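Dear Dr. L.,

I hope this message finds you well. Following up on our conversation about the binding site, I have prepared a predicted three-dimensional model of the protein together with zinc ion. For your records, I am including the exact sequence and ligand specification that went into the calculation, followed by the structure tokens. Please feel free to forward this to your student if that is useful.
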Amino acid sequence: MKLICIGRNYTDHIKELENEKPEHPVVFLKPDTSILLKKQPFFIPDFSNDVHYEVEVLVKINRVGKHIDKKFAHKYYDEIGLGIDFTARDVQGYLKEKGLPWEKAKAFDGSAVIGDWIPKQTIENVDDISFSLEKNGKTVQNGNTKFMLWKIDELIEYVSKYFTLKIGDVIFTGTPSGVGGVKPDDILVGHLNNQQFFSIKVK
Ligand code: ZN
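The resulting structure of the complex is given below.
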């Protein structure tokens, strides 16, 4: 399985990193080895001094598909989740400046937190999901999928032009503003529609 991640999908986050608003979705992949094992702490890798959390709504693909039209995209997922796209921001800054691929900053072991899943049917509208991240008990990120530049079904249409979607693939749909650094002993807790989806200790 693969993790398909979307960058720059919320205007407020584009502004905070002083990035340009993209013409098309920014897409990158993480391998399955990037998934943080359940109940395990996140270890800050030794090649970075500035690892950031990015809380993101997740979509789990349940059918094989390619060239999916957005009006059929809703048939390709029935679970919604919440996770973190950990990013070595210093490494990413260097790679961006050189025009190099982002994998070393984004796809390293443990960089993908996948929390609990809930059935899509329990959510009234996937384009109006509120979610947040708390660091050490204080809310640091607050988002709602209604502020996505490309909504979930549009992302499925777009990414399936390039990659065949397979059962179990996960789409990370991008992060809102409020990203920031982590240090040992931080506790990161994610909520979606007021329900806790994960709690991660940083080491
Ligand atoms: Zn991200």
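In brief: The chain has one domain: 3-201.

With kind regards,
A. P.
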